[in-house]
Design goal:
Layout lengths: L1 H7 L9 H8 L20 H14 L3 E9 L4 H11 L3 E8 L9 E9 L3 H13 L5 E2 L1
Antiparallel strand pairs: 1-3, 1-4, 2-3
Length: 139
């Protein structure tokens, strides 16, 4: 389903994507000539499809969650976000984390969900943040 959505821009339910999965996995070997896989059934729950696509982006290293700490003062968060933007990562969500984390009284935890181009780009983002003095952990 994810392969068809990402690469072919097709929406197919699980049963409708089985023929493509069989061909791609090698379990159904072509027998000479042209092989065709019939894709059918677009009866897919939108929430399920969105969840599958998000999970795939995470597995492929294109969606990451980063936790760091920022000074709890005006401009503290803006400095962090400028670094993220400078590293050309796309911010999907941000959450201040002030509980269940060991924090200094003048800092706040920040959890960022970022979209990157892949593991190599994620490493560049991490390096840029660490070079600027931020402790970075992945969640």
């Amino acid at each position: 389903m994810v392969f068809l959505a990402e690469r072919c821009k097709l929406v197919a339910e699980g049963a409708g994507a089985v023929a493509v999965a069989a061909v791609l996995s090698g379990r159904l070997a072509p027998v000479g000539g042209t092989t065709a896989a019939i894709v059918s059934g677009g009866n897919v729950d939108n929430g399920l499809l969105a969840s599958l696509l998000r999970r795939h982006e995470t597995v492929e290293g294109r969606r990451v969650r980063i936790f760091t700490r920022v000074p709890d003062r005006p401009g503290g968060l803006a400095e962090l976000l400028n670094l993220v933007a400078g590293a050309r990562a796309n911010l999907l969500s941000l959450e201040h984390v002030r509980e269940a984390v060991s924090l200094h009284v003048r800092e706040t935890g920040v959890e960022l969900t970022l979209e990157t181009r892949g593991p190599e780009h994620t490493e560049q983002v991490r390096a840029a943040l660490q070079d600027a003095g931020y402790e970075v952990s992945f969640g």
